């Protein structure tokens, strides 16, 4: 089968289309013929090997050669112990371990997959899993956002950010989105009440405070985040600098005790229940997966370059077709 592979950490130039062995599912797994795969921050990090936690599987070189976590496709075959799916089922979801999706076929146990609703295209379905579940956990499940609260989303214009902005608005919050200059009109168009250009303004020093900060790309000190929180407010680190992550792990509990502010890492479990919940909101038209741009499988390096160069407003999706066309 065809897959986009890489052998070492670095730039999108290191990604290349190759002929690799088609995966064989074991008795518990399913084999999925991929129709679409979307790009997430986890692919950017897995490619560049930055931040450091992206190298957990392989410090010097990637332990898996195929990136791509969020897929939609059709079940090709089913292991004899897997009773949840059957050949021909249209499915979508996030692949455990965040790898394997930039390919014509992928095998997985299927526990993080769900049946694709007929009303969603493969591309729309592939745009939802990781980003949608992060937003659902951050804003609703753990964030428990309520009407009237002030919510800030740092990195609001990327993959997970647009879902988070829409969910926070849905729950009646006053929403501030932070991202680069080119993405501010887009974030406004999602319903955000305020936008902040991270290239011009530091949201932790402008005197404003929030009930919830959902940080998709953290790189400031834990004390900056404490300053930007209202009394009893919560700050969730989703992704960003590994140093900040360790700082939060060490100092977050002390801040909680001293200042009653909740500064913590948001661990987002890959799971079917949340995937179905966020997808139902998409089907109902309450939240929409925003696809900025589509690429074909052999254009995957361009897709990653588009994301890394700061152009992507929402999701970038790769259509995986046998003829290589979108
Ligand atoms: N905690 C968990 O369990 C869990 C699970 C899965 C994934 N993750 C992590 O979740 C994170 C979410 O990423 P995503 O997919 O939404 O990422 P993404 O698509 O790369 O979006 C990040 C956004 O942040 C913007 N940005 C860059 N620097 C910024 C700054 N200094 N201030 C504000 N915004 C900035 C980026 O814009 P530019 O274009 O300007 O760079 C981009 O729009 C990733 O780090 C991933 O590893 C965490």
Characterization of the model:
Strands 3, 4, 5, 6, 7, 14 and 15 form a 7-stranded mixed beta sheet that branches. This protein folds into 2 domains: 158 residues, Alpha-Beta Complex (Quinone Oxidoreductase, Chain A, domain 1), CATH 3.90.180; 135 residues, Rossmann fold (3-Layer(aba) Sandwich), CATH 3.40.50.720. It has 9 helices and 15 strands. The chain has 326 residues and is α/β, with parallel strands linked by helices. The mean pLDDT is 96. NADP nicotinamide-adenine-dinucleotide phosphate binds next to helix 1, helix 3 and strand 9.
Features of the shown structure:
Quinone Oxidoreductase, Chain A, domain 1; Rossmann fold; 326 residues; single chain; six-stranded parallel sheet; alpha/beta
């Amino acid at each position: 089968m065809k897959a986009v592979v890489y052998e070492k950490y670095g730039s999108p130039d290191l990604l290349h289309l190759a002929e690799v062995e088609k995966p064989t599912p074991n008795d518990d797994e399913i084999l999925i013929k991929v129709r679409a795969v979307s790009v997430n921050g986890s692919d950017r990090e897995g490619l560049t090997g930055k931040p450091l936690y992206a190298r957990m599987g392989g410090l010097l070189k990637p332990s898996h050669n195929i990136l791509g976590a969020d897929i939609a496709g059709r079940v090709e075959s089913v292991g004899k112990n897997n009773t949840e799916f059957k050949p021909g089922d249209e499915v979508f979801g996030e692949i455990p371990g965040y790898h394997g999706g930039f390919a014509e076929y992928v095998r997985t146990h299927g526990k993080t997959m769900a049946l694709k609703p007929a009303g969603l295209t493969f591309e729309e379905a592939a745009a939802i899993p990781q980003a949608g579940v992060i937003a659902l956990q951050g804003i609703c499940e753990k964030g428990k956002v309520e009407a009237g609260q002030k919510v800030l989303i740092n990195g609001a214009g990327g993959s997970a950010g647009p879902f988070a902005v829409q969910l926070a608005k849905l729950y009646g919050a006053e929403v501030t989105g932070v991202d680069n200059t080119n993405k501010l009109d887009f974030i406004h168009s999602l319903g955000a009440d305020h936008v902040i250009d991270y290239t011009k303004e530091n949201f932790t020093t402008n005197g404003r405070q929030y009930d919830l900060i959902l940080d998709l790309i953290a790189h400031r000190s834990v004390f900056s985040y404490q300053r930007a929180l209202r009394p009893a407010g919560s700050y969730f680190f989703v992704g960003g600098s590994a140093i900040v992550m360790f700082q939060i792990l060490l100092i977050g509990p002390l801040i909680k005790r001293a200042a009653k502010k909740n500064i913590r890492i948001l661990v987002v479990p890959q799971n079917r229940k949340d995937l179905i919940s966020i997808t139902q909101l998409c089907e109902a038209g309450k939240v929409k997966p925003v696809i900025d741009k589509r690429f074909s499988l052999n254009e995957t390096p361009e897709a990653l370059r588009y994301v890394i160069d700061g152009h992507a407003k929402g999701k970038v999706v790769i259509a995986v077709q046998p003829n290589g066309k979108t």
